[in-house]
Amino acid sequence: MRIASLVPSATELLFALGLGDRVVAVTHECDYPPRAAGLPHLTCSVIPEGLAPAEIDAAVRERTQAGRALYELDEPLLAELAVDLIVTQAVCEVCAVSFDDVVAAAARLPTRPRVVSLDPSGLDDVLADVTRLAEAAGAPERGATLLADARRRIAAVAEAVAGAPRPRVAAVEWTDPLFLGGHWVPRMIELAGGRDVLGIADAKSRTADWAEVAAAAPEVVVSMPCGYATERAVAETLAAADRLAPLDARVVAVDASAYFSRPGPRLVDGVELLGHVLHPDRVPAPPPGRFADVELAAAA
Fold it and tell me: Beta-carbon neighbour count of residue 133 at 10 Å?
């Protein structure tokens, strides 16, 4: 079977299932595992690089409101690769090629590939997609093994933090404008021994104002700018220091791209990361570089 992945999280999942040798093309954003980055790219973004958060948000809103795509699909290359399965998503219009465009392109291909859309709302859906994709790729037994390991690791964190005081947590997914983490993030915080005071589990990330965050009185703010690794997350967090400092909370920037933004197998690592951030005496530290405490005083 020849597989094209149009979503970074699906690419990660296919490799985690041991099916990387069947993946023949990916997106321009598929950077994990490293081997995936060397595969042919089927997409490119039309949003210029180097924009500030507010400029990125404005550019995305302008195009989506006008009904214009954020990504371009290389349909000639897709046809040349003669794929049997295309994995995509429809849950987020700013995360991948339009689902309708993918379905239309697949219908024009000589191989008439099957299109599977992974559209999780919450963590349970992400775990269920392990089974769905494994079955679609003809490897159900690999899905069962990976799912069992994921559930074991999540349960280990939940058991480790059981009975501990639950700090009040705010998950900030974007700073300008302010977006609060939704979908699977509130459940991850709960499993890690925290209490998300602003996010809504299994619901989309939502806009808010900083007054609402202040009124919720979080003890810990987890800064997880969508799609950014730790170093960039720290920079964006410091840029918002004047709004974060008055909260008088511990502020932690995380590698959102790897462990929070993408609904793939590394969300399990994200639960473990949060478990250590919130309860360092109960959950072992993750490898270096996955998060950083941010000192705001000087920047503010």
Answer: 25
